[in-house]
Amino acid sequence: MNVLERLRGRLIVSCQAYPGEPLRDPDSMRRVALAALHGGAAGIRAQGLDDLRLIRESVDVPLIGLWKDGAEGVYITPTADHAVAVAGTGADVVAFDGTDRPRPDGRPPAETIAAIHAAGRLAMADVSTVEEGVRAAELGADVVGSTLSGYTGAGPKPTGPDLDLVAELAAALPVPVIAEGRIHTPQQAAEAIARGAHAVVVGTAITHPTTITGWFAGALPSR
After folding, report:
1. Which of 76, 92, 192, 222 is surrounded by the most beta carbons within 10 Å?
2. What is the tally of structural domains in the chain?
3. pTM over 0.85
4. How far apart are CA 115 and CA 89, in angstroms?
5. Domain extent for 131
6. Burial level of 174, CB count in 10 A (0-12/13-18/19+)?
7. CATH number of the structural domain spanning residue 9
8. pLDDT digit string, tens, across residues 102-113
């Protein structure tokens, strides 16, 4: 069974921590990934070369890898060189920014997709619109994620998942669509599948205790 078929209708858990946080080290993310698998995750999404290498050594489920370089603009596996490095960690799928924004090296996303394929991996385009998803599929992306919806434009970030985008992408594309971004409840995950998602990625609501604690603390009356 190929990688994408193993993920059909299943949960992928994103194991990432931000710089400066207590869990921001590769072995912590490896342990978080193992805990997610014990809970029934079918795949893992992680970032950073050291994290990916260590997780790959520890798990045999599909692994989606990326490399965040920077904090603004295109920073999710922003260039073909980044993509090749991610592929070298053993990740099965290399996720990259599939939006229409300019890349740091000025090269087109088609070169990133070609580099991923040359390395023998699948290419996942993280997009923010249907148009970007269609373009990514035309360029050869093997799978498209709704990951960047709400993160590329001006204005406040939405609080919930963009399930309308998931449904529109699923209807428009000949490749699988993975729902990702602000999916915070089991009900939202199930709805994403019902609306056409091939699989669902959940990160913060499972693997980011600082944010989860803040949700609970913020719900209590102030003293």
Report:
1. 192
2. 1
3. yes
4. 14
5. 3-215
6. exposed
7. 3.20.20.70
8. 999 999 999 999
